[in-house]
Write a structure and sequence with these properties.
globular, single chain, 4-stranded mixed sheet, 2,3-Dihydroxybiphenyl 1,2-Dioxygenase, domain 1, VOC_core, alpha/beta, 2 domains, Glyas_Bleomycin-R_OHBP_Dase, VOC domain-containing protein, 2 helices, 8 strands, 15% helix
């Protein structure tokens, strides 16, 4: 049996060639707040906090990197959000799923939606501007 060390999630990091664009997306879509970030000198960072949840550290991508943005690049053949239920993604829960879904539609964000077989949880999958997979699930009591 594992020893209980009191681990909690501190932050998730995302590398990007445009950390400002990515920060604005997470602030606008999920309500992250920009917080003070240290000066790393050779590269820029933006730190975001989702109150009561976790921090997101956006790190400037090394300009010499030849890999595409995100695990599923928007230029990749797997940019279809229907691949995300089994792919790499971060999942959020929102207080009003239908209102959130309407916001995504108004912003023209391509989504894939489904409900679990018991019908109690609705899910929507989509990508951030760098091609990182995201899921939003409804709360069971909605």
């Amino acid at each position: 049996m594992p020893v209980n060390i009191g681990a909690t999630l501190n932050h998730i990091s995302r590398e990007s060639s445009d950390i400002r664009r990515l920060a604005d997306f997470y602030k606008e879509i999920f309500g992250f707040e920009e917080i003070e970030a240290p000066n790393f000198g050779e590269f820029k960072v933006i730190w975001l906090n989702l109150p009561g949840a976790f921090a997101l550290h956006l790190i400037e991508r090394n300009p010499g990197t030849k890999l595409p943005e995100g695990p599923y690049s928007t230029t990749s053949p797997t940019a279809d959000p229907s691949h995300l239920p089994r792919g790499h993604h971060i999942c959020f829960t929102v207080s009003n799923f239908d209102s959130f879904l309407q916001t995504l539609k108004e912003k023209g964000i391509q989504t894939f939606q489904r409900s679990l077989p018991d019908g109690k949880v609705k899910q929507v999958f989509f990508f951030d501007p760098d091609g990182n997979g995201l899921e939003v699930a409804s709360r069971r009591d909605e």
